[in-house]
Design goal:
This protein is mostly helical. It has 31 helices and 2 strands. Among the domains are: 90-223, Serine Threonine Protein Phosphatase 5, Tetratricopeptide repeat (Alpha Horseshoe); 224-297, Ankyrin repeat-containing domain (Serine Threonine Protein Phosphatase 5, Tetratricopeptide repeat), CATH 1.25.40.20; 426-498, no CATH class. α28 packs antiparallel against α29 (462-470). The chain is elongated and about 100 Å long. Residues 13-55 are annotated as: Disordered.
């Protein structure tokens, strides 16, 4: 309906050469211009009354007055370029299309002046000043503020951004410079430090937008690198720069605001992660080296007890692990929560440690350190046992290659063969038994007197049980229970194996 109404409005306006509307005629112009009789007669095609909704549509409100105002504007000044959408607010359109002469004419009329704080339809709910910031229309920004627009006004949605944050995120350097250098403050609030509804400053948004020129400008004007958001991620601009892996922005922060930068290196976000934690997961060696060179700490843990080197291992960022080890990080340092080191975390996510040059070189220089690979965590499991239990073949072979022992026992006295058999990992079982130490664990019993064969039979892994039997596994009774392997095979219906 509104599209047809808009076309009729435009046609009538042109036909009358922008003349005064006839107050007695029941035209679309008069119906939308507030004529009592006409307004009450406007209905949709399904007969429902839409008067209240139409009056709320900012793009068509008081359109009769709008027609009178436009009657004083030269055709070439923009009347023939009116927006096609019936829901486009004229002020927003004039700003976005740089029709600043039209904007001035609109704002000179009291009917439209209140609309400087009007909100456009759409997902962001932006005001005209937000649009000016988005398209870097600095002249429109000055006009709107001169006519009463609030430069600290927020969008209704999308974090409640203010114009200064929009300008920073969009790279609108002219508007940003005007707000931070010429206006500087408004009603006692500095544009450089105002925040959105999550506590993000313009610098946060410039970093997220990757707008280096805006970042440089804000830093030179005193924007704080160590400013922490009050909600959301509760991160600093430096966190955001590391998340974006933007080394140039990080370098600007260190060069222009060195004291705040060093402080920000140790600030945790809502997950307890420092900027170094955020940088390591991307395997950006250049960024990690720069942070370390500037004083980032190697051993700080996040809220899950993960140091940067553990987080890097989880993400298979082995080049970064190399750098961290070269800088002194201990790959076998266990965290305080679950006593796990790099090997445990790598095994649990299926990360193969063989590509880690520094770790391999360290173990070659100090073979005695290989026993650290067999340390149990707070749950009593070794890294190799996790790899077997989760079925992570590459991590399993990688740990064996760098020196993990197959004879290491868990807290419940199980070997890695027990876990491989329990979870039906036939290829792992074959690898273990084909190794030189394989014969020593074939019939090893856990704390309940169960061998790998017992577990394979109990959990119904026929092929694993057959292979173990072919290698010489014994069918002796379980120590704590008078039950043999054969009894378990019959109990669980595995008659073929039992025979």
């Amino acid at each position: 309906m509104f599209d047809r109404l808009r076309k009729t409005l435009l046609r009538k306006t042109v036909e009358r050469e922008l003349g005064e509307p006839d107050e007695e005629s029941d035209t679309p112009l008069n119906r939308q211009g507030g004529h009592p009789k006409g307004a009450s007669a406007v209905v949709t095609h399904d007969g429902s009354d839409r008067q209240a909704e139409e009056q709320q549509l900012s793009g068509l409100t008081n359109v009769g007055k709008f027609g009178q105002i436009l009657g004083s504007i030269v055709l070439d000044c923009g009347v023939h370029q009116l927006p096609r959408s019936a829901t486009t607010h004229p002020l927003h359109w004039a700003v976005r299309e740089s029709q600043n002469a039209v904007l001035v004419k609109l704002l000179e009329n009291e009917t439209w002046r209140w609309n400087t704080e009007g909100v456009a339809p759409g997902e962001k709910g932006e005001r005209p000043l937000h649009v000016a910031a988005e398209v870097d229309n600095v002249e429109a920004s000055k006009i709107l503020i001169r006519y009463g627009s609030n430069p600290h006004g927020r969008q209704l949605e999308y974090y409640g951004l203010q114009p200064v944050q929009v300008a920073a995120s969009k790279g609108a350097i002219k508007v940003l410079t005007y707000l931070t250098n010429e206006l500087v403050t408004f009603k006692g609030q500095r544009f450089i430090s105002t925040t959105d509804l999550e506590g993000s400053t313009a610098l946060h948004w410039a970093v997220l937008g990757g707008e280096i020129a805006c970042v440089k400008h804000l830093l030179e004007q005193g924007a704080a690198v160590d400013f922490v958001q009050t909600k959301g991620p509760r991160a600093t601009p430096l966190h955001f720069a590391c998340i974006e892996a933007s080394l140039p922005i990080v370098q600007l922060m260190a060069e222009i605001r060195p004291i705040e930068f060093r402080k920000a290196l140790a600030i945790p976000d809502i997950q307890g992660c420092t900027p170094l934690h955020r940088a390591v997961v991307l395997d950006r060696v250049d960024l990690v080296k720069y942070l370390l060179d500037k004083g980032a700490q190697l051993d700080l843990e996040d809220h899950q007890g993960r140091t940067p080197i553990i987080l890097a291992a989880i993400r298979e960022a082995w080049l970064t692990v190399d750098v961290l080890i070269d800088w002194g990080a201990n790959p076998f340092a266990c965290n305080r929560i679950d006593l796990r080191h790099v090997g445990h975390h790598a095994a649990m996510v299926g990360s193969d440690p063989r590509p880690c040059r520094a770790l391999n070189e360290m173990l070659k220089r100090h073979p005695e350190w290989k026993r650290n690979l067999d340390a149990v965590d707070s749950f009593g499991y070794t890294a190799l046992q996790y790899a077997a239990g989760y079925g992570h073949v590459q991590a399993f072979h990688g740990l064996l290659a760098i020196g993990a022992s197959i004879t290491a026992r868990s807290e419940k006295d199980k070997t890695v063969l027990h876990y491989a058999a329990k979870y039906g990992q036939l290829e792992m079982v074959k690898t273990l038994l084909e190794s030189p130490a394989g014969i020593s664990i074939l019939n090893a019993m856990d704390h309940k007197g169960r061998s790998a064969l017992h577990l394979a039979a109990t959990y119904g892994h026929h092929e694993v049980a057959e292979f173990l039997l072919s290698k010489g596994a014994f069918c002796f009774p379980v120590r704590l229970f008078p039950v043999t392997v054969m009894t378990r095979l019959h109990k669980f219906g595995h008659f073929v194996l039992a025979r």
